[in-house]
Specification:
alpha/beta; Tyrosyl-Transfer RNA Synthetase; Structural Genomics Hypothetical 15.5 Kd Protein In mrcA-pckA Intergenic Region, Chain A
Length: 415
């Protein structure tokens, strides 16, 4: 499959300045993609674009991956209703180092170059910037940006000169990379289209050259209409310290049926025939969540490695009751303890007191009400006894659960 066909089939086409996208099927080009270090990790929204970048690389194009050490000091204001709080130089430095390491993980085994826009901005003085950049950018173009007009409108929060100038900084990135690395394409998410256009326009005005943009649509949960990856618990991060591999795996395994085929196309390297086979098998028994399991394993392996993906799958099987916790290994138990509370108690211990200690109830009174309401289970069996011995427990290790949610569980070991 040619790249233009691959990108179209996988759903990576939003807006582009190319009149004919089959140009991507011809001679190799050099392109760039950047992530601002506003945090010390990418989210799965960034990861969608990273997977698109992976296809560009796999089809022979040359990748320049940017960490925005300079733009990160300002922060992208697009889509923000209020002024961002500035990160310190030290925080930005730590964040960009973390993003660079994630580039190396996500694109392991591929050819790419990492650059930092702080390297070309740190020695540029204000007059140089005004002459080399500001002189070529009409105010009408900047004032016409949607985020600027909304912030300057009657109900807007206002905008600082720093945030107003953000698109100039990003535009100069493209100009610099065009001059120094022969970059002729910037790829990005749909929300970066305006910033990308600033670079295209600047290069045309300064050099007379036509360069291009390719943007991918933002991934949306078809069941809720909400931006994909936004959950009650917050964003889904690639960093294992922010979203554990097990939590990451469970996010994917809980994806909606309506969107799972699209997520397989966007977030995995399965080819068309493989995805069609997965979906066909999934549709014979949707409740078994076969497609979600394939998705979860593939994405977790890409981000965290095969070993962590296998461990996450094993932990999930214990949390869902598909495996007996009595059979858990030492490594699996250690990983499970990082996900849910762990209590070591006597077999004669009060179940209610154990629930309070494990955070499954706020008080003994609530614990009693939950048990009376048939909401408490041990290894999937509903219980109403006062102590574990009265409940007839004979194993050394059990799963105590309130309701059905994975997180409302605790591992109980009997001393």
């Amino acid at each position: 499959m040619q790249l233009s066909e691959e990108l179209t089939w996988r759903g990576f086409v939003n807006q582009t300045t190319y009149k004919d996208i089959t140009i991507l099927d011809k001679d190799p080009i050099t392109f760039y993609w950047g992530v601002d270090p506003s945090a010390d990790s990418m989210q799965i929204g960034n990861f969608a674009i990273a997977m698109m970048v992976r296809h560009f690389i796999d089809h022979g194009h040359n990748a320049v991956l940017l960490v925005g050490g300079a733009t990160g000091l300002i922060g992208d204001p697009d889509g923000k209703k209020q002024e961002r709080e500035l990160n310190t130089v030290e925080v930005v430095a730590a964040n960009k180092a973390a993003i660079a390491e994630q580039y190396k993980t996500v694109f392991a085994g591929k050819d790419f170059e990492i650059v930092d826009n702080y390297d070309w901005f740190k020695d540029m003085n204000y007059l140089d910037f005004l002459r080399d950049v500001g002189k070529h950018v009409p105010m009408s173009a900047m004032l016409g940006r949607e985020f600027v007009s909304s912030r300057l409108g009657e109900d807007g929060a206002g905008i600082s000169y720093a945030e107003f100038s953000y698109s100039l900084i990003q535009g100069y990135d493209y100009l610099h990379l065009n001059r120094e690395k022969s970059v002729t394409l910037q790829v990005a998410g749909a929300d970066q289209w305006g910033n990308c256009l600033a670079g295209v326009d600047l290069i045309r005005r300064v050099t007379g050259q036509d360069v291009h943009i390719w943007s991918a649509p933002l991934v949306v949960n078809k069941s809720t209409g909400v931006k994909f990856g936004k959950t009650e618990g917050g964003a889904i991060w690639l960093d294992a310290k922010k979203t554990s591999p097990t939590e990451f795996y469970q996010f994917w395994i809980n994806c909606d049926d309506a969107g799972v085929a699209d997520y397989l196309k966007i977030y995995t390297l399965f080819d068309k025939a493989e995805i069609e086979t997965i979906i066909a098998k999934h549709e014979t028994q949707p409740a078994a969540r076969y497609a979600q399991k394939q998705l979860a394993n593939a994405v977790t392996s890409l981000v965290h490695g095969n070993e962590k993906a296998e461990l996450a799958a094993a932990i999930t099987s214990y949390l869902t009751g598909n495996a007996d916790i009595a059979d858990i290994s030492v490594d699996e138990l250690s990983a499970l303890q990082a996900e849910i509370p762990y209590q070591k108690v006597s077999i004669a211990a009060s179940i209610g007191e154990t629930m309070v200690a494990a955070g499954l109830a706020t008080s003994l009174g609530e614990a009693r009400r939950l048990m009376a309401g048939n909401a408490i289970s041990i290894d999937g069996a509903k219980i109403s006894a006062n102590t574990f011995s009265e409940a007839g427990i004979t194993k050394d290790l059990v799963m105590l659960r309130r309701g059905k949610a994975f997180k409302d569980s605790a591992v109980i070991e009997f001393a």
